[in-house]
């Protein structure tokens, strides 16, 4: 009797609920195949990009080797298996050569039929086109941010660095370096020679990156704009985000309130208000 297999994938290792949702959908789909197929298992690729070919993934390769003619491979969504036309076409041909059907639950598509194979190719083309549009929009947005001297990547923006506790702070050394490089260039030194000098002296950024010509062009724009980009991001970057920051503030407020209350408490545990303390001092002054 042929076997029914499931396949699940997540881009990061911590997406446990993603696997549970995918596996639940696959188990539900197996109910229709109980009489004709035995249950196999769900292969899970963790922290794996969808751009990576199916058979180059650890669990994907295991699934490909294990399947036999008549088996069914099921996934909850198309993008769990592939995101490019080449990968999709190759995967269809490979499984078809073994007589294995592919089932995509998000569009109720079964490649066991001729129409299913055609639609699978068509939808894979659309998925790749959409992904290319996303890449284009991302590149355009990053180019605009770089043109304005704004942060445009995960690296520290020009003139900024992380402190030991994780907060973004001004990198005064780098800002002086940018001013020095600008003066050198205005004095006739080429950017190529400036970068070569820094490389020869092994001068790098706070995060370990080296300096290069495009970075200096971006840094000069950031300098002209007043080194924007991180002052408004402190609550997101320092100590893990704004929620933790608010919790720390609440904890400090409570600690200060407790400290004030303790300072107004007698050693025997009785509380003394400010008015009571004033009356006590006045009585003490009147005592002969």
Radius of gyration: 32 Å
Question: Could you give a short account of the major beta sheet?
Answer: 5 strands, mixed
Strand order of the largest sheet: 2-1-3-4-5
Share in β-strands: 5-15%
CATH evolutionary superfamily of the largest domain: Resolvase, N-terminal catalytic domain
What would CATH call the class of the largest domain?
A: Alpha Beta
Tally of DSSP helical segments: 10
| End-to-end C-alpha gap | 108 Å
Description:
It is a single chain. This protein has 288 residues and is α/β, with parallel strands linked by helices. The protein folds into two domains: 3-133, Rossmann fold (3-Layer(aba) Sandwich), CATH 3.40.50.1390; 150-263, no CATH class. Helices cover 51% and strands 11% of the residues. It is built from ten helices and seven strands. The chain has a five-stranded mixed β-sheet with strand order 2-1-3-4-5, sandwiched between helices. Strands 6-7 form a two-stranded antiparallel ribbon. Strand 6 (160-162) and strand 7 form a beta hairpin. The termini are far apart. 20% of the residues are buried. Residues 231-243 and 264-288 have low confidence and may be disordered.
Summarize the structure.
The protein is an alpha/beta fold and 288 residues long. 51% of the residues lie in helices and 11% in strands.
């Amino acid at each position: 009797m042929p076997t029914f297999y499931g396949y699940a994938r997540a881009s990061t290792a911590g997406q446990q609920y993603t696997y549970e949702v995918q596996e639940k959908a696959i188990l539900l789909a197996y109910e229709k195949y109980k009489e004709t197929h035995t249950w196999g298992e769900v292969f899970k690729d963790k922290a794996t990009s969808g751009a990576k070919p199916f058979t180059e993934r650890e669990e994907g390769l295991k699934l490909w080797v294990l399947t036999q003619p008549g088996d069914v491979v099921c996934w909850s969504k198309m993008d769990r298996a592939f995101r490019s036309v080449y990968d999709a076409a190759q995967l269809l041909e490979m499984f078809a050569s073994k007589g294995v059907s592919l089932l995509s639950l998000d569009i109720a598509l079964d490649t066991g039929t001729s129409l299913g194979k055609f639609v699978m190719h068509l939808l894979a083309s659309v998925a790749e086109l959409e992904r290319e549009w996303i890449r284009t929009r991302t590149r355009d947005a990053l180019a605009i941010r770089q043109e304005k001297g704004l942060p445009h990547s995960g690296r520290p923006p020009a003139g900024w660095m992380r402190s030991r506790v994780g907060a973004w702070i001004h990198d005064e050394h780098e800002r002086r370096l940018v001013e020095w490089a600008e003066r050198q260039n205005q004095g006739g030194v080429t950017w190529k020679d400036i970068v070569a000098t820094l490389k020869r002296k092994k001068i790098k950024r706070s995060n370990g990156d080296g300096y290069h010509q495009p970075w200096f062009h971006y840094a000069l724009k950031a300098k002209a704009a007043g080194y924007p980009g991180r002052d408004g991001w402190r609550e997101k970057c320092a100590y893990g985000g704004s929620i933790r920051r608010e919790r720390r503030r609440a904890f400090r407020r409570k600690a200060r309130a407790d400290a004030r209350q303790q300072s107004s408490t007698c050693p025997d545990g009785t509380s003394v208000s400010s008015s009571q303390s004033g009356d006590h001092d006045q009585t003490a002054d009147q005592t002969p």
